[in-house]
Amino acid sequence: MPTLGEFISHAKQYGFQKRTAMLEGGPRGRARIVYLWRDADHFAELPGVRQTDRLTRHTVETLCRQLGIPGEDFGVG
Questions:
Q1: What is the tens place of the pLDDT at every residue in 23-47?
Q2: What pTM was computed for the model?
Q3: Does residue 14 contact residue 73 with C-beta atoms inside 8 Å?
Q4: Structural domains counted in the chain
């Protein structure tokens, strides 16, 4: 399975951008959400792990499904 950084780099080939949103006033105060975005129909929140951490198969499958990236690109399908 790829690291988070490898997944993000590959997703950029499909036109995705890594973005960050800061939410104010939640039950725990400020919240930071990091996500991949291409358009209103193609976006997904990224897991809160380091860029060098390997993703689980389940996480890769879920991100691919949400973003419309072929799972075959990562050996899942």
A1: 887 677 888 899 999 998 899 999 9
A2: 0.89
A3: no
A4: 1
